[in-house]
Structure formats: structure tokens, C-alpha cells
Specification:
188 residues; alpha+beta; five-stranded mixed sheet; 5 helices; flat
């Protein structure tokens, strides 16, 4: 089970009550510890429409529940800033769906939160802060993930398409160039 004492120590370093980004949230709203570092694997075909036989695996940091059987998935990030919250929420939109599939829940019964536990300045002054971001994923977050996943699946079916698109990347990256050069040598 989740060690609530440990979690409260982490969050009390800087989060509660000052750094929760909403006045309507309280950690006590989800008093029941459900799981920690829960590994979930589901067939990819349960997440998106595909005939590819691949499993999707995830590890959810912590899950809590309230007395109304609503769940909160908390994903801990040790990032030094909160700049990638949108990307993290895309990840959490997938966790919502995966968790719902595994446990037979309606996705709307699951909320998410990002627990930043290593916030610090670019120039290290020895202070580490924390923040709990409870903003929910945009309705398009899972759709964005699905589009990216479908791109990956198209590359899996047609490796030449992958190398064609990689060669069109407008970034001067020596690794990209090396991969493309090696691929061209191998196909000729």
C-alpha cells in the first residue's frame, strides 16, 4: 500500500497548503491509499484502433480513492520546473484510460495530478520546492497521443516511411545523419 506518511512528508516540504494550483483541492479529498508504482499492461488494441499485437505497459506512481469511489492518479516528476505540464498531462490521459481498462472503471471517475517534487532554480541555490498540479488533461490530450502512436505504428509497418520522414527533419543532428547514412548504405 501507499505510504501516506512518506507522501505527506514529500508534499509538506513545500506543497501544502501553499503550492497547490487550486483552492478547491485538498489531499484529504482522497483519503484511501490504493496503490503505489502499479504496473499495468494492456493490449494496445484496447487503447487505440489497431490490428497490431503489442502490449502497452505503464507504471503509475500512486493512486488514491475517495469515499465516492473517485480515484486520483498522482504522477511524481523530479523536473526542475513545471514547463512540460501539458506533455505530462498527455501521459496522464493515457494513464487514466489504462487504469480504467484494467479496473473496469469509467474514465470520468479518475482524476489526475502531477506532483513536482524537485523544483529548483537553474542556478542551484540549495532550495528544492514542490508543487501539486491538479489541472486535468485537455479533451484533446488522448487524441494527440493517439495520433503520435498511429505515426509510430505506420513506421512499424513501413520502415522506409520512417527513414523518409527522419531524413526530412530540419534539425542538424549528427545522430540523425549517421542513422540515415547507415540506412542508405544497407539498402543499396
Amino acid at each position: 500500500m501507499v505510504n501516506r506518511y512518506f507522501i505527506l512528508i514529500i508534499y509538506n516540504l513545500a506543497i501544502f497548503p501553499a503550492s497547490v494550483n487550486s483552492s478547491s483541492f485538498s489531499f484529504e479529498m482522497y483519503p484511501i491509499d490504493v496503490s503505489v508504482e502499479e504496473k499495468i499492461t494492456v493490449p494496445l488494441s484496447k487503447l487505440v484502433e489497431t490490428d497490431v499485437s503489442i502490449d502497452f505497459s505503464s507504471k503509475i506512481d500512486a493512486v488514491f480513492k475517495n469515499n465516492n469511489s473517485d480515484f486520483l492518479i498522482d504522477d511524481w516528476k523530479t523536473s526542475k520546473n513545471t514547463d512540460y505540464g501539458s506533455s505530462h498531462r498527455q501521459q496522464l490521459s493515457v494513464y487514466q484510460k489504462v487504469y480504467a481498462i484494467k479496473h473496469g472503471l469509467a474514465p470520468n471517475k479518475i482524476k489526475v495530478a502531477i506532483g513536482y517534487v524537485g523544483l529548483r532554480k537553474t542556478i542551484n541555490d540549495g532550495k528544492i520546492d514542490a508543487e501539486l498540479d491538479i489541472k486535468q488533461p485537455a479533451s484533446s490530450a488522448f487524441e494527440t497521443f493517439s495520433k503520435r502512436l498511429n505515426t509510430f505504428l505506420s513506421w512499424k509497418k513501413d520502415v522506409d516511411l520512417f527513414f523518409k520522414e527522419l531524413s526530412e527533419v530540419k534539425e542538424d543532428d549528427s545522430l540523425f545523419r549517421s542513422i540515415i547514412e547507415q540506412y542508405k548504405m544497407e539498402i543499396t
